[in-house]
Structures are given as structure tokens and as C-alpha cells.
Amino acid sequence: MIVFDIQAVQSIEHGERGIARYTGELARALQASHPDLVDVFAYNDALPYVSRLDTLGLEGKLRSFSELRGQRVDLLHVNSPFEQASIAVLVAPLIAERTVVTCYDLIPYRFSDIYLPTKGDKAWYQSRLGMLVSSDAIVTDSQSAADDVVRMLNVDARVVTSIGAGTAEQFAPPTDTLAERMVELNKVVPELLPGFVMVPAGPEWRKNLDGAVDAYSRLDPELRQRHQLLIASKIAEGQRVKFFDYCQERGVANDVVVTGFVTDADLVRLYQSAEVVLFPSKYEGFGLPVLEARRCGARVITSNVSSLPEVMLEPAALFNPHDTDDIAAKLLGALTDVGVIALLDRAADPGFTWERAADTLADVYAEVIGRPSLPHGHARRQIALAAPLPLHKPEVAKRTLALADQLETDTDSDVTIFVQNDGQRFAQDWGRSVLNVRILPARHAAGEYDEVLCVLGDREIERAFAAIARIVPAQLAVWPDDGEQSKQAHALIDILGPTVDVGQLAAAIARRTPIGG
């Protein structure tokens, strides 16, 4: 059985467009092009149900997480691992033989000072990264994102595939006149005039609205009067005041218009009616607005970074988003230079479609399912052991390694050690496979471990395990010669229950149901 986790369509953070649109359109294309491939499109009944799920043509294959609880499946595809909700709510309650995870970008990881300013933010994000690094395959929406996964997470490039994206049917050239479209648009944005420059982005740092305003302010005032700057986005009231204060400082406030949220129909009309679409983002996982605008016949200029050159193939359309002069020069050319206008108007289409994405994804599924798999329950018991393994305290590390060896011998098990830091460093120093505890929830949810153990006595591993203790049941153990436990350890005991002596672990494991029993 193949299960496609479609809860991203219910997204709390991205429900209007973005990831929700991507996941829904990909599901629609999969069902249309490969109707016998996916058995279940699973939605999360712990989140609000959205009517859009009923419009995707999934032909009765929609089922809730609750209906699937505890089932063993051949493959689970997780489509949105970075939602803000608790991971305990988001993880599909399945036992998956194989997992595929979609990564749209690693922007928060790349720009962590901006997007992950606190230790709590970083810990939350790292817990989601665990779903990526522990999966059998990762699919991305661009080659740029795939390269980031390989480089930044040290993932084998052979398990990462860029499948691309596409646009819905309504993103197409106009069949009516500009005057007719402006009548409809003025019902939504009364002050909008023909000839506007459209920026399809909101007030997020990487979207670079300040860069757009700065570049626009360098145009001749008479040219600005003929070409309003339109920000096509919903902007909260406080952000709107701050944004227009910035425009006022640049002397262009009277030439700037903000739409607020617009429907898909009006978004298409805006793309079809803009003189130029300006997308000055500093980093994108894919850059869907660029592709949508081009499919509507718009003249587009955009940044030369990350994935954007993949969706805009014309060099004359690209600028450095960190260089205001470069943005301004490209904008001026797109508005006034006949030669540049001709190049932009006939820019090649990159060929991305949802059908192509679905075909590539189907190939990924086939490859993953075709890999040899362990028998259910494994030939040997699988134990996850969270325990101190400090590089600077070799005597403590040797004690943990000896415990792992003893457990393997006494319980006929394979033991994987989990630590709070970079597991590769420990593997190099101690010659044993060691993983970061942040990926344990994803592996536990996938049914990879028969037992999870946490040995107290080290504040760092206790803090790391406390962050996941409510969703990863574990047996706590203490070294017999340890003194008073840390306050964090007491918190773990409150969550997970009493401890046993390390020397009793093997006996405690043996008392539980044996593998296959």
C-alpha cells in the first residue's frame, strides 16, 4: 500500500497558496496520470478539514489518519514536514516500510539567524530535519533545493530527486482585452491603473520588498507616474504601516498600491495585465510566481540566485537581488528598452508541468519500493539507545559503548546509539554508527525500533530527550553509581515513569514480548 500524506492542503501556515497548492496539484496529477499508483491520500483529522480536498479528483481515496492508525504500509510520502503544529499531531500514525519526504527548501536552516533566532526554534526545526535525513528518498521542487539538501545535510545525492512543479490550467494567456480585465481588477483594487509593475510577494525578509521599492524609487518620476508599483499580497495592518513609511522615505508612497489577498482568478488577471512582473527574492525553493506569471504571458524579471534561473532561462531577465542598481537597471530596461522587451517577451518556457512532476515521482516510488527490505519485525530486535557519549570524557563514552555491546549480546539485538550532537563526529572517533537524537521521532514513527532506552546522568542528553519524550515512549535507566539526578531528569521521570538500574536493562527487555512472539 502506498499512502500520500496530503495534510499539507490543510496547512496552518500555507493554506492559501504555496505548499498547500503544490501538494494538492501534485496529488491531482498523480491520480490523473497514475490512477492505480497511490492507494490512499491521507488527511489529518486532528486539523481542520478543508473543502479543497474534495476538489482534487481523488476518487474516494481520501482517508483520515484515524482510519489508518497502526496499519503497516509499503510506502508513506510525507509532503510537508515543516509545519508549525506539534510533531505529535503531524506524524502519520502508520508503520511504514519505506518513507519519501518532500523538501521544498532549507531556507530557515540556511538563514537561521533570521528564521530560527532562539534555541527553541532551532530545536523545533531540527526535529523536522530528522524526517528528511532518516527517509528512504527525498524529493524536491528544484535542483537548487536538491543541491542544498545534499550539501547542507550531508545526504547521499543518490536518494535526492528534483521533480519540479507546474501551474494550474487557469494560469494561461488572456482571451479578453486589457480594458475588460481592468474593469474586474478595479472592483478589487479601485486605484489600480494600466501599466503597473507587479511584485507578487509579501513582507517577508527574503522576498525583498525593500529592494523592489528601492529599485523602483530610482526610476524617473515621470516613468513612475505611468507605472505604479503593485504589491500583490496580504499585508497585516502593522506591517502595512511600516511598509508605507518606508515608501514615504523613498519618496514613492503615492505611486505604490497594495492589493491585500486576491483570489486565484484576480491573481491571473493581474499577471495577464501587468506591464512587468518583478520578483526580487533573495532565495526561493522553486519560484512558482515566476512560472505562473510567464504562463499568463507576463514579462518577468527576477533574481539570479537559488532556483530562480531554473524557472527563468533568459539571462536578460536576471539580476542580483542584493544590488539595487542592478535591479533598477533591469526594471528600466524591461519598461523602456525595445530590444530587452523583445527578449523578455519571447523568453523560453522551462517546461515544468505537474504531469512531468507526477511521472518523476512515480519513478521514485518504484525505485524505493523495489529496494530489498528487512522482514517485518527484523531478524534481530532493534534498540535505540540515547546515552551520553562525550568526546571530552572518554571514560563516560567507553561506559556507554560497553553498555551497547552488552545489550546486543544479552538480548540478541542491534543497538543504535543516539546523541545530542553531530553523530558523524562520534562515529569517526568511536568507530560505531551514532545518530542525532532529533531524528529519533521520525524513525520511531516509522516502526524502526522495538525498544527505546534513555540512560540518565548527562544533562545534555537529558535536555535533548526531554524535547521528544512525549512522542517517543522510552524506558529510563540510571547508572548505579550516579549521584543526584538533574532537574531535567526529574522532568523526564514525570513524563516517562520510573527508572531501572542499567544492570537490569537486559532483563527488562527480555521480559517484554520477544520478536515475532
Q: Could you characterize what this model shows?
A:
- Mean pLDDT is 87; it is low at 85-89, 374-378 and 513-517.
- The protein has 517 residues and is an alpha/beta fold.
- Strands 3-2-1-4-5-6-7 form a 7-stranded parallel sheet, with helices on both faces. A 6-stranded parallel sheet has the order 10-9-8-11-12-13, sandwiched between helices. The protein has a 6-stranded parallel sheet with strand order 16-15-14-17-18-19, with helices on both faces.
- It has 3 domains: 2-162; 178-345, Rossmann fold (3-Layer(aba) Sandwich), CATH 3.40.50.2000; 381-511, Rossmann fold (3-Layer(aba) Sandwich).
- Helix 1 (18-33) packs across helix 17 (354-369).
- Helices cover 41% and strands 16% of the residues.
- It starts with a strand and ends in a 6-residue tail after the last helix.
